[in-house]
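[INFO] parsing input record for Transcriptional regulator
[DEBUG] input buffer:
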Amino acid sequence: MPWDVTHKTKSKEKILICAAKLFVEKGFDAVGINDVMKSANMTRGAFYAHFKSKADLYNQALVVAAFKARENITHGCDQGFASLQHNYLQQGQDPALKDNQQCPIALLISDIRQREPLVRETYEKVFKGFVKFIESQGLTEAEALKEAATMIGAVALSESLTDKNLVEKLLVACQR
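[DEBUG] output buffer:
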């Protein structure tokens, strides 16, 4: 029986969603194609029907991770920038948000600089989109850049520090 016309699209989407989560959690070097395909419950051979290489997958998964993180972080943010900022800063701390896709801009910040130019350009586009989204909350470009840098840095640090009390103080200090 032949596959329906949407099968290939659905398969690629499933792979990208699994890869996005794994890459954000572990970084490029710690994730193999086999890991992604196992998570997607698919064979390694299916990978090559959709992607040229692991770097190609990483590049595309970065965009998917950003969109999924945005869905997670903006859920219930009808009160403007303050609620968006709160959710963003709490994404790795709040148990209700922790298991959802976290922001690749923050969690892959040190991983990206070691990647090829195409991946770095994609990361930059995602960052610019994040800044534009913050601007859409009523901030100037300069304010949005400052807030983006503060929020991204705070989340990156919060995932690296072991002192939970210090993490809590950091995240509170970074709220507007």
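[INFO] The domain at 7-173 is CATH 1.10.357.10 (Tetracycline Repressor; domain 2).
[INFO] shutting down worker
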